[in-house]
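Example 333, ligand zinc ion.
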Amino acid sequence: MNLIAESGRSALKIAILYDEQFLLHDTGPNHPENSERMLSAINFLKNDSKLKPNLIWPSFGYASIDVINLVHSKEYIHLVKQESEKLTKLTAKLSTGDTVISKHSYQVARKSVGAVTEGVDQIMKGKASSGFVFSRPPGHHATKDRGMGFCIFNNVAIAAKYLQMKYGFNRILIVDFDVHHGNGTQDIFYSDNTVFYFSIHQHPFYPGTGRPDEKGSGEGYGYTLNIDLPKGAGDKEFIHGLKSQLIPAMEKFKPEFILVSAGFDAHENDLLGQLEYSNNGYKKATEILSTIAQKYASNRILFVLEGGYEPTNLREASVSILNTIISKKIKAD
Ligand SMILES: [Zn+2]
């Protein structure tokens, strides 16, 4: 037995952060961001004989107001609580944007943040080598004081701030490969040189931001990197973007922790997205991201679900990512 490998981070398991309460965020009939979309993935992970021994399923609670307040204003947090808990009908639109809420949405959104902070803690405390958060509502469109695009609290942005507050990191990378540009995440860190935001997404498309000339401002100039792809682009363009732009940028930035806004709506045959990534594309992307994590961040990488509206795609692509992490870990051992 290789004792060094056994005691090192590479021998550890992947933390899956999931809670049945995520199903309680009701978006009404025929909504693409519904509670069923990730069930197929969760059932597969719980039962697949190859994956099962490599996964742990930590439990977690609701994020505190103070933690959510690392990114969102107290006024906005209060607004979400009020508008959600006062509901007398089944669903309504959040007043700040195109996001459906129900009676439980505020609490479920708090739990979604609780999942990402627990994912961070699992990795930082050495209980897991890496992690994957299967939570909803998603987060990357939410700004400091505005929920929009199916998002309430910006899970990934809060995870970045939490890493800085609790663990003192100065260089965090957020990689966003959802088909939509994460306008909320970009906005929150636009003038910040401690969080590098990289997004590759479809353009023209919702929400309209994320052009390559949006590079950050002030001290944060050069710490936002956007690649927009035309409708119909696929694995070739996806992987080329990572190789030609992300890798060189990270040679300079040297991230200490990687957060991934893992949306699967850029997968071929998604209900909303019009890009054509395949499961093999997600595999190759994970190889690149894991190599960056290995090189600079002691393998610390946390994937966080964003969009992805075709349950089979969501399952196959996330399984492809997890299997890639596992096989890279075995090679490293
Ligand atoms: Zn999306």
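Summary: The domain at 10-332 is CATH 3.40.800.20 (Arginase; Chain A).
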